Amino acid sequence: MIRFDSRKVNARFHNPLEGGKLVNAELEYRRDPLLGHISILSDGLAGKREILFPKTDEEYITRCIKETMSNCFLCDDRWKKTTPRYPDDLIPGGRLIKGDCVLFPNLFPVASYHAVIMVGKEHYRRLSAFSPDLVNDALQLAFSFIKRVFEKDQTRKYWTINANYLAPAGASLVHPHFQLLGDEIPSTHHERLLFATKKFYDSNGENFWKALVSTEKDLGLRYVLEKQGCHVLTAFSPMGTNEVLVVWPEIRSFLDFGNAEILIMAEAISMTLGFYEHLGFSTFNFACFSPSLGSNENWGSCIMRIVCRQNMVPDHRTDDYYLQKLLQNEIAIYSPENLASIFKAFVGIDS
Ligand SMILES: [Zn+2]
Questions:
Q1: For residue 186, which of 10, 65, 70, 190 is within the disulfide window of CB 3.0 to 4.6 Å?
Q2: Is there a single domain that holds both residue 29 and residue 71?
């Protein structure tokens, strides 16, 4: 049984923007049905969007591209000389290549296996230019690497597929790239996810993610679409701006992704990034989580969170302030229901 808990509260103050009138700003607190993290919705925040997320500055992007392209260690095949290589006993030749995508080790790893995937030859691409074919090539490398490592080292059971795009999202280079992390210890959030999902199964006798997509599909408020077991929806209590959840309730781990599933994942990512551009956003983070490889437990499913970050503007204000970083609450600019409705219109589905 999925519980969507929320509570409405008021904030009273004299508003100078309304001639000093005493106003009651209505807020809604929402609790995530699995992990309990809280997000805050309010019409006032939606009205503040231009201040919180100023419009992308296209001239600034053009300037950034110009300033960084000549020094980019990936552009113009420079990756062939500049990027590190894995030992030949793991990857003969040191790197994995598919189409215009290349996988190589991160020079500054934060996990035993921390691979970077160059996503295409273009130094910069708009969010709508992450085509399904391109993302598919990058993901093919990701899954191939994960399977290859796990065959050799079964202690590395915890894997995520991640991305930062552009500086406001934490990327240290403009050139599009994804990142893989694999180790014997999961990340904090990964561990919380697995623990809570197992606990839900033990208490309710059903897989949380299966129950979630089924409930959300019935409600129709935040559910966007399904393609062959891959469900796309907006998060009831988002952890980041415009959070889109991609859920594979029946896929027990990354080891079970075949070519068909990888292509659908690529389509889901490409579609969501195109949607973000449609909303006027220009950066993103994503993380895709797998239950521990080889576990194959009924409570486990693969899921992915995709969020927008601050837009590309000079001297941008970070969107992660004390509220997110230390209080671990998030605010929603679009309500998740409104976000899903715009998303459905974007992909041509009648609400
Ligand atoms: Zn580049």
A1: 190
A2: no
Angle between helices 188-204 and 208-219 (to 10 degrees): 80
Question: What is the span of the domain harbouring residue 270?
Answer: 56-346
* 148-178 pLDDT per residue, tens: 999 999 999 999 999 999 999 999 999 999 9
The rounded Å distance from CA 102 to ligand 1 centre is 13
For 285-334, write each residue's pLDDT tens digit: 999 999 999 989 999 999 999 999 999 999 999 999 999 999 999 999 99
What does each C-alpha distance from 174 to 63, 149, 346 come to in angstroms?
12, 28, 27
CA 118 / ligand 1 centre spacing (Å): 9
- Same domain membership, residue 97 and residue 44: no
CATH code of 74's domain = 3.30.428.10
How many Å lie between the centroid of ligand 1 and the Cα of residue 1?
A: 48
284 alpha carbon – ligand 1 mean position (Å) = 18
Q: Which residues contact 325 (CB under 8 A, 6 or more apart)?
A: none
**What's the gap in Å between 261 CA and the centre of ligand 1?**
29
Whether the CA torsion 223, 225, 229, 233 is positive or negative: it is negative
Query: What distance in angstroms lies between residue 100's CA and the mean position of ligand 1's atoms?
Result: 12
Taking ligand 1, which is a single-atom ion, which protein residues have CB atoms under 5 Å away?
Answer: 72, 74-75, 123, 175
